[in-house]
Structures are given as structure tokens and as C-alpha cells.
Amino acid sequence: MRTRSCVRSSVSISIALAVVCTAERARADNGVDPPSPLRWQWVVDRALGQSPSLAVARARIRAARARSGQVALEDPMVMVRAWNVPLDVVSAPPGQIMIMAQQSFPLSGELGDRERVEATRVLDAEIERDLARHVLVEDAELAYLALWEARARHAALRELVAMAERVREVALARIGAGGSPSDVTSAELELARVRALAEAARIPLDTARAQLRALLALPGRTRIPDTPDLAPRPSLPSLATLVAEARRQRPEARLSGATLARARALEELSGSAGGATLTVGAGAMIMHEEEEPASWMLELGLSLPLWRSARNARSDEATALASEADESRRAYRVAIERDVIAAYEALTMARVRLDALRARIAPAARLALDTALAQYAASGNIALVLDALRAKVATDLEIVEATAAVLRAEVRLSHATGRSTHGFAEAQVSR
Questions:
Q1: Looking at per-residue confidence, does 243 or 94 come out higher?
Q2: Which of 188, 215, 349, 351 is least enclosed, having the fewest CB within 10 Å?
Q3: 41-74+108-276+326-426 belongs to which homologous superfamily?
Q4: Mean pLDDT along residues 136-142
Q5: What is the dihedral of CA 357, 361, 367, 370, to 10 degrees?
Q6: Exposed, middle or buried: residue 230 (CB in 10 Å: 0-12, 13-18, 19+)?
């Protein structure tokens, strides 16, 4: 019995290990586990692959293409006619029966105009997909940037905790040289304050990770690794270059152009629809006399409109829609230019602020703290050290926020110009 129990336990453990290994392999094969460090390209690719809106957009493209491929002549018709048939069909001959297949051929260019209209619908669907992708990529990059900012803020506060601990150690060392115990108490209070800030900084970090899980459709317990250090791009293109780029590739600009093209195609279709039509038919006429064989028939018909009031009304409406689409396209161009100018201005101001913090304020804050510590170690005042430490804390956190503001402005300017992705430069963020 004991042997059987051991065998059952061994089998159960083996099965459990196999299930766990299989689940881990399936998890890895599905690409659920993010890479470490977390790269922005993986985030963007995952967001695009898991987006329901993009799946809907792709389905619309397939439907538009299927509809465009079916633009052809009108379906052929089968006509059956019978006449001279008496009510008493049992005792009387049936009369004459004609069976004919007919096909209509528009002569006014209607078929080509319909094809152009359906082609613009396909283009609309493709641009709407690009627009959905454009918005999704921007959201993914901003979520990635939010994770970086939360991680950078938490890392900066941990470094500041180490500085506060150093201040406390200096205060403890001064007690033996006649220092005041109240200095140690003040240093410990400041250390507790900085530690509380560092602990509170974990909350936005956890929130950023949760938002990424939701955006990327990851399981709730998926570990989100840290991002690498990011740095702003060293150069900025000219405003004229960015405006020209936005006019050329911004999805909204392309969509307004496609709307205008469809309006003009509908205008042409309204002029050609309902025009002259050639009808070709072939069939047979069956007579009631049994000795007479069926006679074959060939039909050619030409249909011409008697008046054009309805056609002219459709044409006027289509012309008005084309004019409206043209005005909308011009309005879109102005709005796109304003978006680029606003994003460019925001980025320029953010870069100026960050450069000032890094070039002048951060070195001054570091020097003030080192000088105050050196003076206090000799015979200085603890209040000057604590003031310098608070200034250092505020400066380092402001640099993190300013760097994130520059990166965020870069993302928004990049997407304001219509680029598919922005991307981030990986570098050591200097403080």
C-alpha cells in the first residue's frame, strides 16, 4: 500500500510539473511576458496586435474591397411572358410563351464612375484604419512614457534618500565633537520626509504598470519590467519642414482629400447615372401549335431619358457636397498647421526649461548641498544643510518632470506631423 501511495504521489507531482511547464511554454509562445528592459517597440507592436478598433477597421477594409470588386454591369434578367391564355387551360391551348434573357449596358460612363466611387470608399476605409492606428500608437507611447516618468521619479527619490541618510550620519558624527542632539533629530525628520516621498512615488509607478496591462490586454499578474533610461533627441527640425510633413502624411489631411475625391466622383456619377442604356436580349418563343417549333429571338433596345429634372437635382446636390468637401479640406489644412505650430512651441519651451535646469540650477543645487555639508562637518548650522537638501530634492524632481515634458512634447509633435511612430532615444538621463 505504501508503495502504491508513493507511486501515486510521484505521478501526481509529474503531472503537475508537466502542466506548469506546458503553461509556461504557452505563455512564452504567446508573447505575453514583456522583455526586460521594456522596449517601446514591443509596447507599440503589442498594442497594435491586440487592438479591437484596428480589427474592426481591417474588417471594414475587407468589406469595402469586396464591394469594390463587385462593381460591374447590372445583373442579367430573365423575362417570361405568356399571352392569349384562356382561363380554361385544361381544354384550351395555352397560346404563346416567350422566355428571354436580357442584359443592360449603360452608355454614359456610369460603370466607370461607379468604380471610382467604390475605390474612394476603399481609400476611406484604409485611411480610417491608419487614423485609428495613429491614435493607438500615440496612446501606447504616452503610456510607455508615463511608466518611465514614474520609474525615474522613484529612482531619483531613492538617491535623495541616500543623501538624507548621509546628512544624518554627519549629524551623528558631530555629536562626539560637541554637536547638538537636536541636529540629529532634524536630520532624521528630513530623512523620514524624503522616505515618505519615495514610498508615495511607488503609487504612480504601480498605476502606470496597470494602465499598460490594460492597454496591451495583458493578464492582471503580468510583470511589467522597468524601461531603460530615455533622453530627448538632440536636434529639432525646422517648423516649415514639420508643417510640410504634416500636410503630406497626416491621416486627417489624407482623409479630407479622400472625402473630396469621393464627392467629385459622386458628382460625376450623378451626371452619368440614368443616361442612355443599351439592352441586349436573347430568347425563344413557344407557340401553342405542336407542329410549329420554337422560334429564337434577338432583341436590341436603346433607352433614352425624356427629361433630366431628377438627374439635374442629383447633380446639383453632388456639386454642393463636393464644394463642402473642398472647404472642409482647406479647414483641415489650417487646423493641422495650427496643431503643428502649437506642438512645436510647447516642445521648444520645454527644451529651454530643461536646458536651464540641467546647465545652471542642478549644478548649483548640488554645489550648495556639498558646501553646506562641508561647513556643517566643521562647525556649521544644520538648518543650512537641510535647506540645501530640500532644494536638491525639488531640483531633481523638477528635472525628471521637465525631461518627461520634453519627451511628451516630442511624441505629440511627432504625431502632429503624421508620423506612424515616434520612438525614444535610450540614454542615461543626467541629473
A1: 243
A2: 349
A3: Outer membrane efflux proteins (OEP) (1.20.1600.10)
A4: 91
A5: -80
A6: buried
